[in-house]
Amino acid sequence: MFSRVLIANRGEIAVRVIRACRERGIESVAVYSDADAQAMHVRQADRAVRIGPAPARESYLSIGAIIDAARASGADAIHPGYGFLSEQPALADACAGAGLVFIGPPSEALERMGSKVAARQLVSSHGVPVVPGETPVDQSDGAIRAAASRVGYPVLVKASAGGGGIGMREVRTEDGLAAAVQGARRDAESAFGDGTLYIERLVDRPRHVEIQVLGDVQGNIVHLFERECSLQRRHQKLIEESPSVAVSPALRARMGAAAVAAARAAGYRNAGTVEFLLEGAGDGATFYFLEMNARLQVEHPVTECVTGVDLVHAQLDVAAGEPLRWRQDELTQRGHAIECRVYAEDPSRQFLPQAGPLLLYREPRGPGIRVDAGVEEGDAITVHYDPLVAKLITRGERRLDAVARARMALRHFPILGIRTNTGYLAAVLEHAGFRDGAIDTGWLEREGTELLAAVNADAPAEAAAAAVAAAGQRQHAPGPATAPAFDPWDTLGPWRTGA
Amino acid sequence: MSGAPLIVTIGERTFTVTRESDQAFQVDDAGITVEPAGSSAWRIRNGDESVLAHVVLDGDAVWIHLDGRTFIAGIVSDASVRVRRGSADEHALAAPMPAAVRAVLVEAGQHVEAGDLLIMLEAMKMELPVRAPRAGTVRAIHCRPGDLVQPGPALAELS
After folding, report:
1. Helices (H) and strands (E) in chain A, counts
2. How many CB atoms lie within 10 A of CB A284?
3. What is the pTM of this model?
4. Tens-digit pLDDT profile for residues B107-131
5. Contact between residue A45 and residue A28 where contact means Cβ atoms under 8 Å apart
6. How far does B35 lie from chain A, in Å, by closest CA?
7. Which residues of chain B neighbour A461 with C-beta distances below 8 Å?
8. Helices (H), A152-248
9. Omega cis (within 30) before A154
């Protein structure tokens, strides 16, 4: 096992990995930018190395600075966390060049999974289903009509050269195809100078369901069941859970086997996630490979809560060359877990990210409640990095037990000094559609207006006004003041209203 | 322990709060009791309802967390609610959140049309454009590329 591990990340995931290292008797080395000199991950690590100024590209994204820090601190391995450099083959290669172990997949596997298009071709050739589609060699209207029939309606007609949905058209039946092809071809030509069209099966109201996998150097690969991640806004996941209400035991076995096959095709080892689009639910549902995330995921705690496996410990084990501790049939999924991502953002202003001090920050506690955070009261959310404040993970015997526990925990998670999405998360948890599990990747956008209206509906503002008055009075009581003293009755001039 | 009623504003609403005793307050027509419940925390009882509140001060605002909801309140010290608001210009020309200045696209003396991009800010990987709220001449620019700016003060002035 390693004696000293450098964590090439910040925030909650750095704190998470530091804890795991400490539990294993491994010294931890934090790295930090100037903006993070006082950050929690720096305070918690055994040692810390400055790697540059605040902008990520000059610090957390600088492979040279990370490798130098690892050398200077005498680390023997690097854990990349998620985001930043975690999926960069160049970091894995640089580790190998410096005699350091990269706690992640081999560089070649990162390469293979790095291109979505190449990854789909690779796994498809190993029998993993991908969304059916083709670029007809003959681009005549007749040939495209034939291709659409082969792919099966409904279809998406899109620019073969493009991306970002430019020129993309939905076609429900053959009647609508001719007009869509004309329009898409015109758009593709003007946007990309290439009118070649790609015909893809439209997956209607899909769920995003992903499978956690783990592989060792001995060649064993297991899966740790699914995570339901359909609740997304602008491709940002908001709430994840395991198991998924849409996944039956037979479907789970099929998806798990497909995920293992995809990982095997990539020559994968360590922790990774295979993402699928799921159409339908239960035994008859269809799933398609989307991409592989070659790293630990933000939402890994829900898997830990239902399997009892500590994924970071497992990462350390396999990176050190140890075999996996379990065969597939020894892994079980028990109970239900749900993760709510608490972001510093203002739902009432188009979810604008918020930066500022955590004047008050009190995590909820109790059985079945886990909070993974990289901040404490008195810290700040800065403008330099992403606005994740904390992950609230709750567990229960059944889905609605976990949901009720999350709802209660959010009510007891005061965060003051910046606006957060806790009220919005609670509104999602209370929505009848969510409680029924009738969700898909478009659900949050469709229900957006209703959810926002629910956030502060029937807010007990009178009680809040009384609390303001009482807090002001309290400042004059004997004993230590917990905030700057003020007495609204004595000292105040006109105040500006808050919004 | 006395004084004129306190005027508390929360969002669009304004409340008149009168202190009856240490723990008893009259908020408009409602009698509400507030007991200390730990550091920055209060137990609030309004009729049959009882909730826990956390309260902190933040400059000239007060943050309240109450049973899963967050409020930002303002206070005025007498019954004539005087609300100091910046001009429309100041609001439009200020950063919407703490941000870094990526680029300043205009100079003092330059004429701009309504909607022209004046300053590009960046925060949390998002570009935040600051645009001219109306046509006019740029009188001054109060930031430079690389500056970290806070919400509130205008980053440019129009005449």
Report:
1. 17, 23
2. 10
3. 0.84
4. 999 999 988 889 998 887 777 888 8
5. yes
6. 8
7. 10-11, 13, 15, 71
8. 177-192
9. yes
